[in-house]
Amino acid sequence: MPRQFQFRTVDGVETVQIAVRGRQVLARPMLNFGPGYTLDERAALGLRGLLPPAVNTLTEQVRRVYQQFRGQPDDLSRYVFLNQLQDLNEILYYRLVADHLEEMLPIIYTPTVGEAIQKFSSTFDRPRGIYLSIDDAAGMDEALAAHGQGPEDVDLVVVTDSEGILGIGDQGVGGIRIAVGKLAVYTTAAGIHPLRGIPVVLDVGTDNLDLLNDPGYLGARHARVRGERYDAFVAQFADAVRRHFPHALLHWEDFGADNAHRILAAYRDEQCSFNDDIQGTAAVVAAAALAAVRAKGERLADQRIVVHGAGTAGVGVADLMRDIMVQEGLSEKEAESRFWGLGSRGLLHTGAPMRAFQERYARPVEEVSGWDGAGRYDLAEVVRQVRPTVLVGTSAQPGSFTEAIVRDMAAGCDRPVIMPLSNPTSRSEAVPADLLRWTDGRALIATGSPFAPVEQGGTTFEIAQANNALVFPGIGLGAVAVRATRVTDRMIAAAAQAVAERTSAGRLGAPVLPSMRQLRAVSAAVAIRVAEAAVEEGVATRELEHPLQDIHELMWQPVYPTVEVVDHIDEPSARTTEPGREA
Ligand SMILES: NC(=O)c1ccc[n+]([C@@H]2O[C@H](COP(=O)([O-])OP(=O)(O)OC[C@H]3O[C@@H](n4cnc5c(N)ncnc54)[C@H](O)[C@@H]3O)[C@@H](O)[C@H]2O)c1
Ligand SMILES: O=C(O)C[C@H](O)C(=O)O
Ligand SMILES: [Mg+2]
């Protein structure tokens, strides 16, 4: 099918060539500027009479839709409203989100996206992204082609199989919305062009009985396919991405713990890909931990770290912190001995069963011989015995950082670092106001979901949001900017470093991470460091001549482009703004 339109940027000016007319223009979210079209443009595009007479600026349109947004009764309705706006006029949607970032991010992303995923089938209207069903594996190539993007057109593919959505588990086909949400954050934070990212759900069935028994459920209605058939489907998908979109970075999101680690290990050396829950989370949490221990005048290597929930995120976080301790001078074994991990059966130790990816954090069984618990040691016992200085929560067990546990921890150190990272808000291991109360304001806190500042003892405590949203957009942009062929550990460590450098947690009450308000600047800083690391690692296929300028120019802004009305679009569609020279 001939192309209907094409965006290009020449000398910093974005233009869209449009080869369709009339209602076909208004039917495309990236072309529908609504009353934003001038009268001349309306005449040239066959839009006369299809729009009300007034011509609006983008600012006027934002004002109107913001009022409509404010009129929504609850967060889920706000999500649905924004979702519909994205499918109506996508540039206006991104402008609205950019202008009201702090208010909108918790709607289009965590925590509200969690509820929207759970209610996917009842709130579904217009499909967005690609739905790949294991029952139609043979149709995968056709499905990817049907999306309409050519090999040069795609920078990013975000994929989930929906088994481990946030902390709410298996959500079947509704998981597409986490991929949509992550891409919206890529665009908002790092200026990835809205057309250059594709959200994908791999629907392999669901083990969620509520979904299987819901007559309105829109996904494949059978139990999750596992084993060889699942692996073959994932392999077919990874290969199809390489063939259809050879320059795309593949972002794995919210897979179940075993598959997440296995898939990352299988593909990280095969194609440009990373796992956000393992590596993105690790980078942001390491940055928060570094800022917190610096505020105490200590090193990471000096800490005793308990990871409550040694799953996808927990083990990723431990691995990166271990690597930082090694840089600080510890041996790998010494560094690993600074961690105590807990799974659903309590402390990981060599006398109890565990999963392969957890084994390096198993404590020797001799260490626990005198402990209370007969082989199963819960968080309270671990905290009592270990006296941790850092407590990480990636368990999705709400309230598991109890008053008794937190007071016990705080009795053993001056500034306990406590990070309840589980999302959405309903899964948080503790809420900041409680943590500050139980520790008399001594705790250094980071949470996964957003929390309002807390007033205590005359101090306002701003709560750092340690959400991978602070790093994955920059990791993506950095990798895309230099067309990296892999995402290496050093690129992830560089992302953590870039965030840590932009944090100063010295003052009492200051957050241990930059605010989400600074998302765009942080993402640009992360992208520059990630791109540089990619070049140093030899995985970049082009270099940036002026990193700051080049990254800045690559970041798409939500403004209406100059319209060029044409009869047809010339192929090929190679990107016209080259960020650097071929290496
Ligand atoms: N802040 C962030 O950026 C961020 C990033 C990724 C994940 N998360 C959150 O972390 C949580 C876990 O996500 P995940 O992807 O790692 O899931 P996961 O299923 O891979 O890991 C959860 C782990 O918790 C363990 N667990 C379960 N019950 C437990 C209990 N009672 N005590 C101790 N451990 C227990 C499980 O054994 C598992 O190892 C989710 O809520 C998710 O939203 C946050
Ligand atoms: O999606 C988020 O908010 C962060 C993270 O990827 C998660 O799974 O919780
Ligand atoms: Mg996730």
UniProtKB/TrEMBL annotation:
The answer, when asked if Amino-acid biosynthesis is one of the entry's keywords, is: no
Tell me which Gene3D superfamilies the record gives. Answer: Malic enzyme, N-terminal domain, NAD(P)-binding Rossmann-like Domain
Query: Mind telling me which Pfam families this protein's record contains?
Result: malic, Malic_M
Cofactor info, note text = Divalent metal cations. Prefers magnesium or manganese.
Write out the catalytic residues in the record: Y109, K182
In this protein, which residues make up the domain named Malic enzyme N-terminal?
Answer: 86-268
Q: Which cofactor is recorded for it?
A: Mg(2+); Mn(2+)
Biological processes per GO annotation: malate metabolic process
State the Gene Ontology terms under molecular function.
malic enzyme activity; metal ion binding; NAD binding; oxidoreductase activity, acting on the CH-OH group of donors, NAD or NADP as acceptor
The reply to whether Methyltransferase figures as a keyword in the UniProt entry is no
Q: Which residues form the Malic enzyme NAD-binding domain?
A: 278-535
Question: Which InterPro entries does its entry note?
Answer: Aminoacid_DH-like_N_sf (IPR046346), Malic_enzyme_CS (IPR015884), Malic_N_dom (IPR012301), Malic_N_dom_sf (IPR037062), Malic_NAD-bd (IPR012302), Malic_OxRdtase (IPR001891), NAD(P)-bd_dom_sf (IPR036291)
User: Which sites bind (S)-malate?
Assistant: N423, N467
Keywords attached to this Swiss-Prot or TrEMBL record, sorted alphabetically, are: Metal-binding, NAD
Q: Where does a divalent metal cation bind?
A: E253, D254, D277
Q: Which GO terms describe its cellular component?
A: cytosol
Q: Which family does it belong to?
A: Belongs to the malic enzymes family.
NCBIfam families named in the record: PRK13529.1
Could you tell me what this protein is called? Putative malate oxidoreductase [NAD]
Native species: Ornithinimicrobium tianjinense
**Source taxonomy lineage?**
Bacteria, Bacillati, Actinomycetota, Actinomycetes, Micrococcales
